[in-house]
Structures are given as C-alpha cells and as structure tokens.
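Structure tokens please, single chain.
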Amino acid sequence: MTKYVYTFGGKTAEGNASMKNELGGKGANLAEMCLLKLPVPAGLTITTECCTDYYKNNCQLPAGLMDEVHAGMKNMESIMGMKYGDPDNPLLVSCRSGARKSMPGMMDTVLNIGLCSKTIPGLIKKTGGNERFVYDSYRRLIMMYADVVMEKAEGIEPADGKSIRKQLDDMLDNYKEEKGYKSDTDLTADDLKYLAEQFKIRIKEVLGTEFPDDAEAQLEGGIKAVFKSWNGKKAISYRRIEGIPDDWGTAVNVQAMVFGNMGEGSATGVAFTRNPATGDNQFYGEWLVNAQGEDVVAGIRTPSPLNDETKNEQNKHLPSMQASMPETYKELCEVRRILEDNYHDMLDVEFTIQDGKLYMLQCRVGKRTGVAALTMALDMLKEGLIDEKEVVMRLTPDQLDELLHPILDAADEKKHPVIAKGLPAGPGGAVGRIALTSEKAKEFRAAKIDNILVREETNPEDVEGMRAADGILTARGGMTSHAALVARGWGKCCIVGCDAVKIDLEKGIVKIGDKQFKEGDVISLNGSKGWVYDEPVAMINATENPLFQQFMKLVDKYRLVTGRGAHRVVYRAVG
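Here you go.
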C-alpha cells in the first residue's frame, strides 16, 4: 500500500528536510527540526501524493487514509501525553497546508480542532479553570472552521456577497464596540461563551448546516479543506505568478496544538534569522502576548518587537521579548544559531510560548528582497557558511532584475515633504497612481499605468492586485504581515503599518496624514525608509551599489563565455 502518513515528534521523525517533494516544505522542515532536537509539538504529515490522489478520486479521501491518520494520532497522543477527543485529557490539533514551494497565506489553516461540548469541560479543568482561554480558543475554531471548511471547501457563495468569516468578524467587532472594548483580549469568558453561541446560530442561518460538535468530524473536515484549498482561487493565482505546477499538490500537517493565548505567560511570534528587507545580520521578528499565530500576521493588533535593537517608530513603545522573557528569548536565539548552521541560509520561523515553554511550529528558507539576498549572500561568504559559487547561485534572476530597478533620487527626495511614515517592508522606490482595490490595480496595469495599491491591510485574495501594483501601502500590519511577506518575495516596494492612512472605499478617497487623495492621484513611496510623499519623486539607477559591483566580480570569476561575441553565460557553479 502507498504510505500517505509520516509522523514526527519526540525529537525523532520519519522524514527529513530532503523530502520536500513528498512532505511539502512545512512537513519536511518540521521533521528536520525534530531531528535537530528542537522543541516541536508532535504531529503527522499527509503527503502531497495523497493530495494528487484525492483529486484523481473526485475529491474523496483515498481508502485507508483515515486509518493511517488514526495510527499517526496514537503516536502523537503518546508523545504529548493527551488523547484526541478525550473528555478528561483532550488533545487539540491544527490542520495546516504545506506545498513543496512556499505559498504564504495562499492555502488554508484550521486551529484548535477537537474542541466540542464533550472536550470543553475537560480542557477547562486541565487548565486550572481557565474558561477564558478555552472559550477564546473555541470561538477561534468556530470562525476558522465556518470559513475554511464549511463555506470555502464546499464552494458556497454568500448570497449577499459577504463571506461567513466577514459576518462573524463584524459580529465580533460590533460586540466589542457595544461593550467599549479596544482589543480581543478585553473579552471575558462570559463574552466569549455568548459570542460562540451567536456564531453557531449565524452559521446555521447562513450556511444551512450546523457547526460540527464532534472531534472526529472536525478532523476529517479539516484535512479535506486543506486539500481543497490547493485549488482555491488565490492559490491558483499565486501558482500562475510563481510558475508552480498544478500537479504538485499540497501536504497536510496535523499537529498537536500549543497555545499562545493562555495568558500573560504565553505568546506567539514570527521571526527571521536575518532582516529580510535589508539583509542585516540581526535577529528580526514580531511577537504578541496572549495570542495565536493568526493575530500576528493579520494586523489586528500591533505586534511587539523581538528585541530592542530592531525597534521601529510603530513599536518602540512596546516591550520586546528580549526584555519581557529574557530566558525564552535566549533559547530562541540558540534555535536561530542551530537552524542557520544546519541550513546555511536565512530562515523564517514561527513559534509559540505556552506558559513560558518555547515550541517551534515552522521553519522555512525565508523570502527576501533582492537587496537583502545580495547582502546575506556576501555576509554568509565572509562567515564561512557558503562558498563563492553558492553566492553566485543564491540570487535568482528576478532578484537580480530587482537590483537593476530604479530607486528614489535622494537629491530630489529632499525637495518633497514626507507626509507619512510606516514600516519599510520592501525596499526600493515606487511612483504611481493610487489604486484602492485589487481590481483597480489590475485595471491600471492592463493600461500600462504605474500604480500603488493602498489598503487597510492585504489578504491572500489581493494577490493578483499586489502583483499588478508597482508599490503597496497598508494602514495596518507589521513586518511579518501578509503584505510584507508577499511583497518581499516579489521584490516589490512596500510600506506597512502606516497608521496615517485612512481609507473610505465608498467615496473612493484616502487620507494620508492631513492630506486627502482620490483614486488615481499620484504618490511616491520609499520602501527602504518607509516614507510616503504626496507627489512624484524622481527615480535613479540603483546599480552603483558597491555590494552589487562586488557580486558581479564573482559572477565574472565563475563564468564561461561561449561563441564569438556571445553574451550567453554558463556558470561553472552549475557544473
């Protein structure tokens, strides 16, 4: 029989980093981190081949798969010391995607699977009566499951154009406004109980189906939903842009939940072993106390800085993890060292802290700008992590192309007042007309008009508009937000977390500071500094960068020029 399920946990694994084709990037790297003896919650990975067979089988799970999953769950239960669906000692899991090549935010995730009327009392008792934590986790499950499994996976089109997730988000926001709450963390246990019940009523009204009050049904539904998200609109669009084959499929990672939302001693975060925007050798990231992972990337709460040296204008008043949890931060720094020594590259990591204990949830080679790729490659050469040939191969053609793109002319820039400042998520410059929707950005691009997509925050549905834009400006979000991650991967000028931006979509206007603009007006962005200008700024060539010149000398050293006067270059590094 075909083996569809590979287990990991307890500092051992059936897979490793070389098995990305079978286990996807996330599953292969989870296995590798276990082999590196890092603290990884136990789990199992369902292979990409299973996804392919799922589609061949008319979107039905292959025969015997769930038997393999249940066997893998037994291994997970043994390592974690809990049992899935047990009323007294319940294990909860997440279902997350993981393709061979990173597709950030393009496929679906469900957290807290296994919470139901049978397991809620046991989890409350197990956590010392922490009802608030349990019902916060429950309302999150309801919101995600209704969106990912019940609406998207079943292909239900909302009658009024408003998705079930948007309706539930609105209910949450309206309730907080009624109560005078500023943040989700202000919600009490009773508030969350009430919201959970109201959510379930709305789900039945809108989708015509009850939210499943059964751990087993939730697990199977989560697995199917992740497979189905491979062919979701945003995933297909991203594959077209990135040239990822449709037949690769995605793996599904079912992993034991650890909780960053258990109180002030718990947290969640995203970090990069080096600065992904500039390439500086600084441990760079963001974290949130009493939160789950989606809170960091969604831009709903302003994340705190990982350490003091990387604070910026938006988060300088917030406590760093280095200051608030020094021992855990020290442990995370050691994880950083181990990962770079093993992978010889910059890594993007996700972590959770549960009651002071650190857990690693993901690592992958991090997306970076062309400028950062150049800086990192030359620095890693000096550090002995890579050799000269690897330096040449580290920069992709797209990143080299990015380095040749113009930047704002510093001399002309001084003539224009800065009207707003945000976080420099993607370096370089951009000048273009304001587009307030992805559709408008695509319209401008079709007409060959330079444009800047201005949004409250981007989400995976905006991927085509982000690709069509010359620059991106968002009012919310940090350096690990969706906009920042995707823009960096494409080498696109991007500023996030610019709270001076106020958008009125109905009127088609945006206020930036004390100035008002309409869609189609021209603005300029300096993505390297996070500065916004209210008129066009001149652009210049960026090839005078001394690091670029150093890199090109290495390229000349490892090339063979073939043919009389030929420009075709064949690198010895390729062999």
